[in-house]
Amino acid sequence: MQKTILVMFSGGLDSCYMLYYYLTQTDYAIHAHHISLRYPSEPRWSEEDRACRQIVEYCRQIRSFDYSESRFDIGFKRYAGRDSDTQLLMAAQVAPNLRGRGHLAIGWEKSDFELEVNRQRAKNKVTENLWNALCDSIDYPLGEHISRTILFPLIEMDIDKGKMIAALPNELVEMTWSCRRPRKDESGISQPCGKCKPCQTIRFAKMSQ
Ligand SMILES: [Zn+2]
Question: What is the reported pLDDT for 111?
Answer without folding.
Answer: 86
